[in-house]
Write a structure and sequence with these properties.
47% helix; alpha/beta; two-stranded antiparallel sheet
């Protein structure tokens, strides 16, 4: 039944009877039930415990009535499953025990293969979630190779990804070996979720906005294309990045069926950059979630109006739900979208 859902119709380029909506980071710190479920459990442990990952994935669907669940996980989970030394440090983000700084570091990293057996907890969590969702589709997800490479080369989060961009130009052979490895890891992670029942996937490239279009096409696009190719044709593929207004066409050219658009560019401008033929997803400004409802509603109207210039539109945020967001606002937006 999920195959006929409003979300999947929109992802295929058709306009369903009602506007589909879901929110990035909808299963997260804004929900009190999430905080209760996660209490005393580290992030990666929650991601790798099938019953916990399934429960957290389901929570926003129960509360908000959104048109899709997105699998609760983290972009570094497939690396953790491959045996790479990585932890998520509260207040900081992913931190790697051995950053990629030389050939020996790279050789050690690519020796960590991601096996089907290691992916078993992911498939179990996805299958458990899909069984509970019924006619609501599940979106799988993974991190794009450029963003993962940025974390690995820096050893953790970075404001400008300078080490990664330097490696891209100073040692292209090492860079392509690194991103090629990460494409295999992310592709396998996506494929496992699809095997277990995910009906669409989204590839996140959080840091791609720091690249020029030329650097993106030469240094990031090939690996992203390889990751998406692992599931291309099986399910719709969404590609999303932040600060990527100048890269939208290139991100589409990497093999995406749908382009997620952040809040920095109107959807009609984004659709024009895409040639007017690509479904779009987005792009409510997360800052607006704390605004008075009349202000937020005017913003929603503008987003939906701009989204009509594309073949189809899935209403979403231009990034993730801030942790301090009142969950009732998300429910109200969902009801508003469904009442149009």
């Amino acid at each position: 039944m999920a195959a006929d859902s409003a979300l999947l119709q929109a992802y295929r380029g058709h306009r369903p009877e009602r506007l589909p909506v879901w929110f990035m980071r909808q299963a997260g710190r804004s929900l009190p039930e999430y905080r209760a479920t996660r209490a005393g459990t580290a992030m990666l442990d929650a991601c790798l415990t099938p019953e916990l990952a399934a429960e957290i994935t389901l929570q926003p669907v129960r509360r908000h009535g959104v048109d899709a669940a997105i699998f609760f996980s983290d972009i570094v989970v497939p690396l953790k499953l491959a045996g790479v030394d990585v932890e998520i440090v509260p207040g900081r983000g992913p931190v790697f025990g051995r950053p990629i700084r030389d050939a020996a570091d790279l050789a050690d990293l690519v020796a960590h293969e991601l096996t089907d057996d290691a992916l078993a907890p992911i498939e179990q969590a996805v299958a458990r979630t899909v069984a509970e969702l019924g006619d609501v589709p599940l979106i799988g997800f993974a991190g794009a190779p450029f963003t993962l490479a940025s974390y690995l080369v820096e050893g953790g989060p970075s404001k400008d990804q300078q080490r990664a961009r330097t490696l891209m130009h100073a040692d292209p052979e090492a860079w392509h070996a690194l991103t090629g490895y990460l494409a295999r890891i992310s592709g396998a992670f996506l494929a496992a979720q699809v095997r277990a029942g995910a009906q669409a996937v989204q590839l996140f490239d959080s840091w791609a906005g720091g690249l020029s279009e030329a650097d993106y096409r030469s240094g990031a696009l090939p690996a992203s294309a390889a990751a998406m190719a692992a599931v291309h044709g099986a399910v719709p593929v969404v590609h999303f990045g932040t600060g990527t207004a100048l890269l939208l066409a290139a991100m589409r050219d990497a093999g995406a069926d749908v382009i997620g658009v952040d809040h920095r560019i109107p959807l009609d401008d984004a659709s024009a950059r895409l040639g007017g033929g690509t479904p779009v997803q987005g792009n409510i400004d997360p800052a607006m979630l704390a605004a008075p409802w009349p202000v937020l509603e005017r913003h929603l109207e503008a987003v939906v109006s701009a989204g009509r210039t594309a073949p189809s539109h899935v209403l979403n945020l231009g990034h993730g739900v801030p942790p301090e967001t009142d969950p009732g606002v998300l429910t109200r937006i969902t009801d508003w979208a469904h009442g149009r």
